[in-house]
Each structure stands twice: as C-alpha cells, then as structure tokens.
Amino acid sequence: MGGMNVPMMASLKLSDFIVNTVTGDLTDELARTRARDTEGPSVAWLLGHLLYYRYVMMGLLGHQQENPYERFKDDVTDRHDYPSIGDLVAQWNATSEKLTPAFDTATDEQMTAPMPGDGAHGEKKVLDMLVFFVWHEAYHMGQIGALRTHMGLTPTADLAMAAQSAG
Which CATH superfamily includes the segment(s) 5-166? Predict the structure, then answer.
C-alpha cells in the first residue's frame, strides 16, 4: 500500500463504523423519510448515493466493475422501492470488502496519475478525485446524523461513543 492511501482508508473505515452503528435502530419507514419536507434526501438514498461513489472510487483504482447504484448518482427521488435498510447495510459492508483491497493495492504512482478524463470539479489527478470522494462521504455521514436527530433518534456521536465503550 502506498502512503497516500492510509488517511483515506482511515476515513472510509470510520464511515463503515458509522453506517453500522447508526442504522441499527432505523426502520425502513424511517430510512426512507426525506429531509426538507419531502424534498431532500433520505438515509436510504444517501447510502445508495455513497455506494454509487464507492464503485466509482474502485474504478479509479483499477478495479472497474458494473455499478449497480446508478439510480442513486444524482437525483434525490421519492422512491419507495429502495432496498430495505438491512439490505443497504449488507450491501455497504460487501462493497467495503471490495473497496479496501482496491486501496490496499494502489500505489502512490496510481494515485498521482492523471485523471482519465475530466474531474467533476477540475480534478487533475486520481488522488484529487479520491480526496474529494472521501470528503463527500464524510459530508453525507453528517447529513445522516442530522436526519437522525431531526427524526428524534439518538445522535450519531452518542451512538458512536456508546459503541466505542462497549467494544
């Protein structure tokens, strides 16, 4: 593993911990509850959206696979046909098992290679795009926490501290 991978993998593993910690008390109905009076994202949509970008990251690291989360790329919809929260978490964990080796085997040379095409925000190197995607994931983890609090559920930080003390 190249040295550039280490901080990004630490952040992605933290997201894994958060997803597995904050979804245990969500029903499918709560997971599909949308923010901003039904115009914003739901926890279910956010997980699908982040799964989409985890596949994009794998592709940038040379592990291209068909992306089964295309419908979660951009548009937040009011679909009630999302997978159950249990299925989304299982898919999250299965995707993490693919993403970790992609990062583990990436070299610093791969990471500093030019982007294969235009980056969404003018990124020039694979590393620039990966850094954005890791930040993007952390941003949406915060949204999940805000949705939980808005729904009257235990805040993410409280759940995380309780899980840390129990483990």
Answer: dinb family like domain (1.20.120.450)
